[in-house]
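Sample entry (535 residues):
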Amino acid sequence: MGCRDFFAVCLLLVGAVHATGKLGYPAPLLGETSPGSVWPQPHTVTASPQLYTIDIQAFRFEYLQTSQRCHVADEAFKRYQLLISRSGIKAKFHDKYSTSVISVLPVMITGPCEDMPSLDMKEGYILDVGSNPLLNASSVWGVLRGLETFSQMIWEDPSGQAVANKTHIIDEPRYAHRGLLLDTARHFLPVNVILENLEAMAYNKFNVFHWHIVDAQSFPYVSTVYPNLHLKGSYSSLNLVYTPEMIAQVIEFARLRGIRVVPEFDTPGHTYSWGLGQPGLLTTCYTGGKPNGDVGPINPTVNSSYTFIKNLFTEVRGQFKDKYIHLGGDEVPFDCWKSNPNITTWMAAHNMSGDYAKLEQVYIQQVIDITGAIGFSYIVWQEVIDNGVKAKDDTVVEVWINNHPEVEMAKVTALGYRTILAAPWYLEELTVGEDWKKYYSYEPTNFNGTAQQKALVIGGEACLWGEYVDATNISPRLWPRASAVAERLWSPETVNDVDAATPRLHQHRCRMVQRGIPAEPLHPSYCVFDWMNRK
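Predicted structure, serialized as tokens:
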């Protein structure tokens, strides 16, 4: 065992011997591993060993008289007051720190109230915990992030008292788009499971739920314009679908936590389930000049395909409140198009014989035009741009192919498109050991490009595709592995030390478990709280 390894083990042992909090915190040491450490790490933290008692039974948030009063903040006050009161610290208030007691955190919102989170929302805040506590933000979204930070700062001292260190925090996210993709087509996820993970997203300061709601395997989206899509394309039209009411519930739950809900309807590939309820939509495949019973991607040569897309996406635009929709555009197989004589004839008539990438361009271009006309901006997978589609200036390109993604990032940003990175953060790819470390270590701007190109990187996404996860295992597979991505996207680039992050992430994992999120352990360890009475 090397000296460094021995020192690390000694620190872990000291932390175990002196553990004092309900969340498995080590003894109160100044620095990143102190109890009450915040995840993701804030931009600037000035901490003191001076402690303030938090009167958790009487604690409340209240507006300063000159502050805006916003419904989103009102609801957050209720949630966080309840969260703090259920923190697992059972000792009643006593006067150990009677000269330094915090029972109220004043909140100041200096800007106008906003109802819906957006790509341009401001999430910065300033938090003071001390003799004059205050949470100050220009928007309600910054208040949400500050409330989460404050809730994480509270810990239990050796006498059983809820305390927080005197601290001054100036914080804002590094990236505007901090997303989590969940796939509800390969396996259906009940709404309560989606809500649980939206709650966990808020605990980690994610702000985009990328809802990959339909795919080849099933079509659980309930369309009132085309009801046969879910009646014939879902696993079960009785209970494995998302009704308009359910979708509205998810959007509202996310909104109150400052999370955007961006739906993905991926075409022209990944659409087998669509064709079950919409005859004529998909391409008929041929063998030996005759239909062989198989179908391929959406048929791009008939006007009815575009009429269908326009009607469906118009309905989607009315339900989902975010400005953006994800149009997919990835992994389009050409074999079926090649086999179909009607398509080859059409292509010959339009001077594109044999160029099926150009045929895909024709389809995607029309879908992009339709999408813009009905009021959506859009995100696309990287193949759309790789295949030469002309996109609008506000297009967002998602880089997902994990084969030298730095080359693709350089290429897409050189074309002037805003870009989000997903390639290194596919969480269904399991390996033995602490694989969160590889997610934590990837730097989004690690590519050859100008400062202007790197400024076009607006964030990234952790993606969990649904082939091998459902309601039984999705949360522990996500957390705290996705937390590593959360800190990479929120905290400054210089916050990148895996060794320093390890005890903080363990602390945060225990915090999530105490709050009811079944996050899996990082390594052999334990959380110090009452498992039997966990809320």
